């Protein structure tokens, strides 16, 4: 999956991954895709929940070793 | 355009662990686009008092109170296992190693995300505190009526 921007959240615990995602998405244009890289296991549930609450699209979550790559498309 | 959902948090405790929990919930809610208000009352005022300087005290009781209850984010302790400072220090060490934000960092983050921080006028009156006792991030002082006026519209109301 290709992304327009990447956000490194490795080593960061909740709430930092979602909070940083919120701040980064604000700077991005509608339709752009953000790739968040984190090792917080909670992100598998946190990011879809956050996206549902904010109306953003959680496209996919890929796991590579201990890294989670989450792809979010900005919808609004 | 739908109206923003509201979350209100009353922080009554002045413990480090409870303050962290309150701010983590507040910042996460704000990151989800919610309008967040934090009402600091009683021991909770310790979380938002200025760290530096001294508190003005009129009378013996307030002098004693401010001595034993100086407050300020750097003086907060765990609600359990404080162990004369050892427990709090060890917990702070664990949090730092795990890159967990400190109270100061969470206050800055909350401010950035638009969280409103309100200090309780009644507690301020009893403890002899005015605006000067608090850090600049505090928005204003207000009473329960002001806070509840907003709280009744809120989807989430927490007492920590």
Written description of the protein model:
The complex is a heterodimer of chains A (76) and B (160). By secondary structure, chain A is α+β, with helices and mostly antiparallel strands. Chain A has a single domain (5-73), classed as TusA-like domain (Translation Initiation Factor IF3). Helix content of chain A is 32%, strand content 34%. Chain A contains 2 helices and 4 strands; from the N terminus they run βαβαββ. Chain A has helices at residues 16-27, 43-54; strands at 5-9, 33-38, 57-64, 67-73. In chain A, strands 1-2-4-3 form a 4-stranded mixed sheet, covered by helices on one side. The model of chain A has no long low-confidence stretch (mean pLDDT 91). Chain B is of the alpha/beta class and 160 residues long. Chain B has one domain (6-76, 102-159): DsrEFH-like (Hypothetical Protein Ychn, Chain: A), CATH 3.40.1260. Chain B is built from 7 helices and 5 strands, in the order E-H-E-H-H-H-H-E-H-E-H-E. Chain B has helices at residues 16-31, 45-48, 60-68, 86-97, 103-112, 121-127, 144-151, and strands spanning 6-11, 35-40, 116-120, 140-142, 156-159. Chain B has a 5-stranded parallel sheet, sandwiched between helices. Chain B is globular, with a radius of gyration of 16 Å. The termini of chain B are far apart.
């Amino acid at each position: 999956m290709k992304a327009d921007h990447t956000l490194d959240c490795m080593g960061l615990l909740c709430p930092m991954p979602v909070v940083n995602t919120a701040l980064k998405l604000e700077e991005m244009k509608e339709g752009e895709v953000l790739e968040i890289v984190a090792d917080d296991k909670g992100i598998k549930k946190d990011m879809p929940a956050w996206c549902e609450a904010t109306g953003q699209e959680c496209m996919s979550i890929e796991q590579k070793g201990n890294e989670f790559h989450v792809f979010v498309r900005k919808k609004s | 355009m739908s109206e923003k959902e509201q979350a209100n948090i009353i922080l009554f405790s002045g413990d480090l662990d409870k303050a962290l929990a309150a701010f983590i919930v507040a910042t996460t809610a704000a990151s989800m686009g919610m309008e967040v208000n934090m009402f600091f009352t009683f021991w909770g005022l310790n979380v938002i008092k200025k760290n530096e300087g001294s508190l003005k005290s009129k009378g013996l009781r307030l002098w004693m109170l401010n001595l034993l209850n100086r407050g300020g984010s750097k003086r907060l302790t765990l609600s359990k296992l404080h162990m004369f400072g050892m427990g709090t220090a060890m917990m702070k060490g664990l949090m730092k190693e795990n890159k967990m934000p400190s109270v100061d960092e969470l206050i800055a983050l909350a401010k950035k995300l638009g969280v409103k921080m309100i200090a309780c006028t009644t507690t301020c009156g009893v403890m002899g505190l005015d605006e000067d006792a608090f850090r600049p991030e505090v928005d204003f002082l207000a009473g329960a009526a002001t806070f509840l006026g907003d709280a009744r519209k809120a989807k989430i109301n927490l007492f920590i």
